[in-house]
Please model this.
Amino acid sequence: MKILVVGGAGYIGSHMVRELIAEGFDPLVFDNLSTGHEWAVPDGRLLQGDLADRKRLHEIFAAHSFDAVMHFASFIQVGESVQEPLKYYRNNVANTLNLLEAMRDAGVTRFVFSSTAAVYGTPDTVPICEDAPLHPENPYGHSKLMIEQVLADCERAWSLRSARLRYFNAAGAHPDRRIGEAHDPESHLIPIILQVALGKREVITINGEDYPTPDGTCTRDYIHVCDLASAHTLALRALLDGRESMVYNLGNGTGYSIRQVIDVCREVTGHPIPIAVGPRRAGDPAALVASSEKITRELGWKPRYAELRMIVETAWEWHKKQG
Model:
């Protein structure tokens, strides 16, 4: 089956493409390469273009008969979204509407959407279940929740069926070390810490140490990027088999504070990794930890990299290879 992977040259999208090929699907990648990398896409699978270009989108759908679409082409930095909300609403909302319009016109009715734990905001309890209140605290989270609502409306209007996957902190790299996390500039915690171990940064700055957590630093749930990809494949198969729309959290169910993550990185790399403390980052909840019981129960998903050390080890092998 032919699958369009939007944003398939990026970090998560490129791992998704590898997973789809391994599972017997025929993925094509639509990406503008603004943050993705051509080298991350297998030969012959890149259809370069921008979601803002409605004409290009309709050309792609006219030229190919897709069985489903998977969407990873979003801006994802919480702090930046607070500073530049229009940038996030334009890309994450308006451009996604362009994609959905092209799907509707082409008769494609299966959609796997990369959502986020940020739709919950600061939760009342952790771990967070899918029926927890939705109170995003930053434009990034708002933009994702808006699309979740759009998907529900499209289902009523033209029978679009979707999987809305709310995942927590993606981390790690493919075990073959051919693809991994390569943002420029880097914004995610684990690769930034590893850059310190590689001598590319002097210190890791902790943004706030006065949160209501055991050590005062933010607590997050880290999930390996390959485990994310396998969950997306299960959701895709469920849609293709005729299941109704679904929403799932994706995480390992264990929270680690920033200081704990740094300690694990010290153990894996053997580097002291000095730290500095800065102010809180705007829009950051204190703790986000997933309950993934629902997708485990309904689709049989089980993470292969359940321990943070395992996740960090794959990331470290990737970053060492890059030098």
